[in-house]
Amino acid sequence: MTAVEDRLLSGNRQQTILMNILIIVDEPAEWPLDIPGVSVVAARTYLIDPFYANGISRLPDQTTSRSVKVFNLCKSYRYQSSGYYVSLLAEARGHKPLPKVGTIEDLQSQNLVRYLTEDLNAMIQRLLAPLAADDFVLGIYFGRSISSHYDSLSHQLFNLLQAPLLSARFERHRDQWSVRNVRAIAASDIPTEHHEFAVRAAMDYFTGRSQAPRKHPFRFDLAILHDPSNPEPPSNAKALEKFKRAAEELSMRVEFITRNDIGRIPQFDALFIRDTTFVNHYTYRFSRRALAERLVVIDDPDSILKCNNKVYLAELLSLRNIPIPKTLLVHRDNIARIIPELALPCVLKQPDSSFSRGVVKVEAEAELPAKVTELMSKSVLIIAQEWLFTDFDWRVGILDRRILFVARYRFPAGHWQVIKRDDQQRKLSEGPTEAIAVGDAPQEMVEIALKSANLIGDGFYGVDIKQVGNRFYVIEINDNPNVDAGNEDGVLKDALYREVMGVFLKRIEARKQGHPQPNR
């Protein structure tokens, strides 16, 4: 160890390097109480001490390679003030500041703040209606309020505005409440009677991402987005736990997050979306937010956007000479071409259909107008494809431009899709899944799948293929492919989960070294 490193390890500095959470204040005495595992640092020290610029990254302790979280609680964020430079230099150093400089700028524009909070209007009216006064100030500490009645509003404002400590002022005019202003506050602005609560809120926020120390400390933080209430998730509970164990073996801490945690995205190094993705959906917003915060993210927004639209896929695959079923892009002026070109039965597809929803089989000419009209009520373009009879669909799982797994999805008895649903789109039954060794799968089919997925990018894809005799036809390319314990992992077992987490680790390390992995 060098003399410099030995000096940094002395006294209170020894505690500092064992932590990756820094609270930055103008004067350390302004933060009311100690929090185990958190270091309180003066703004001037953080700005000028070489330790915080590069010492952390050079120390040999494994904890120092983890992302440093910087919670900026300075008195002023005005341009070129100490608070402004704390967030600015934190970003330059590869630390994760809260608030970021962009957020500081956003908070300066109250018009923008009011625009960002427009969607909270119904909640604001409901929660503030009982108040007698026409003016109300809400203190928000790490997304919490001292009155639990306002916790939901506090959490939403924190998610939107992303500053650790906020003061929101509301006013009522003609029985309607509105946001007058929201500003970031400093540690010294916390009322004395709120000190204990503010510290507890901070502790809850920090420990929400933390677990008990391990012999080998984690290097990175990975968020897995899931929906516990989703009846048909892309990974079952057992698979999620296997992903978690695989990540931990590679020194990545995992936290399962839900749709309410979008404000916490900047505190992670990577995001793995294990919820059904749609473009007009919170999963897409999570993906875009993660990419904007320079996280490694699977699925990336570009993949979600492209894979979720069958019109795009049909055009892409056709132009690249990928074999697909005979296909017609249907609009209101060419409906009459469906039967002459495709014959009956044929299949109609809503562009963003998934899990066998929004896909209908038309067997009689009399059915066609109503089916087309129903699907075109949601999109000006839909897909019509020739009917190909098979007993199963191939699925080829691809990640980082490499084959990860191959599976056969068999159909329920007497049905033509993997999932059989009733008229209300409720699942009645699902066919069995059979994992196949990559070497035992038809070589031509695997090559077609890889070529198709590579047209989208280097993310995680499931390419669905039908086999008719010795010919293979790509049906679609899915982002967010299913990985269920007992199904897709039937050949690789736990190695499948390690492969996925290994890609995350490789990409995080590349990004930390300034060599981000391209998405295509």
TrEMBL record:
<keyword id="KW-0436">Ligase</keyword>
<dbReference type="GO" id="GO:0005737">
    <property type="term" value="C:cytoplasm"/>
</dbReference>
<dbReference type="Pfam" id="PF08443">
    <property type="entry name" value="RimK"/>
</dbReference>
<dbReference type="GO" id="GO:0046872">
    <property type="term" value="F:metal ion binding"/>
</dbReference>
<dbReference type="GO" id="GO:0009432">
    <property type="term" value="P:SOS response"/>
</dbReference>
<keyword id="KW-0547">Nucleotide-binding</keyword>
<dbReference type="GO" id="GO:0005524">
    <property type="term" value="F:ATP binding"/>
</dbReference>
<protein>
    <submittedName>
        <fullName>Glutathione synthase/RimK-type ligase, ATP-grasp superfamily</fullName>
    </submittedName>
</protein>
<dbReference type="Pfam" id="PF14401">
    <property type="entry name" value="RLAN"/>
</dbReference>
<dbReference type="InterPro" id="IPR011761">
    <property type="entry name" value="ATP-grasp"/>
</dbReference>
<dbReference type="InterPro" id="IPR025839">
    <property type="entry name" value="RLAN_dom"/>
</dbReference>
<keyword id="KW-0067">ATP-binding</keyword>
<dbReference type="GO" id="GO:0018169">
    <property type="term" value="F:ribosomal S6-glutamic acid ligase activity"/>
</dbReference>
<feature type="domain" description="ATP-grasp">
    <location>
        <begin position="314"/>
        <end position="509"/>
    </location>
</feature>
<dbReference type="InterPro" id="IPR013651">
    <property type="entry name" value="ATP-grasp_RimK-type"/>
</dbReference>
